[in-house]
Design goal:
This protein has 6 helices and 8 strands. It is an alpha/beta fold.
């Protein structure tokens, strides 16, 4: 089955509008951060009769690093390679425990838990998430203080679709 439309979001309002429009017209939303998807669930439908749209977050790739606080905000569309490059440019001592494939994007990596070579010492990538900006099914922008702990847990590898995460605030490690 092919998508009804592919929405290449460049700002939060595009995601909010896509979610609301999909609800109004009974079109499922398949979200992808960058395209790595071995199962094909971000760009296909298991039900050939189900209408769906692809919501592409690849352009939501901003990275803001706060070296003093050892934290970073990372857009879901940023690749791990982009994050590693930005970290290396900002600090010689900070890192983020994530995977080794530089082309995997942050949103997909974290929503699956985030396995990587530093996991034994620092935990999964998802264990180092401090906050997130999420668009829920009602089109609202939520953060950790407004989404509640259950949703905050779920977006970090809980399985299923609980909203569209636009960006992640993460703890950096030394």
């Amino acid at each position: 089955a092919r998508p009804v439309v592919i929405v290449a979001a460049t700002e939060p309002a595009h995601v909010q509008t896509t979610v609301l429009c999909g609800r109004r017209h009974s079109v499922r939303i398949r979200t992808r951060s960058g395209g790595h998807d071995y199962e094909g669930l971000s760009y296909a439908s298991l039900d050939p009769g189900q209408r769906f749209a692809v919501l592409d977050l690849a352009e939501l790739r901003a990275i803001h690093i706060d070296t003093a606080r050892a934290e970073a905000w990372v857009g879901s569309g940023a690749s791990l390679g982009e994050l590693y490059y930005a970290l290396g440019s900002a600090s010689r001592t900070l890192a983020f425990p994530a995977g080794s494939c530089p082309t995997v994007c942050f949103g997909g990596h974290l929503s699956g838990g985030g396995f990587g070579s530093l996991a034994r010492k620092y935990g999964l990538s998802a264990d180092n998430v401090l906050d997130a900006v999420v668009v829920d099914a009602q089109g609202r922008l939520l953060n950790r203080s407004t989404m509640g702990e259950d949703l905050f847990w779920a977006i970090r590898g809980g399985g299923g679709s609980f909203g569209v995460v636009l960006s992640w605030k993460v703890r950096l490690v030394r």
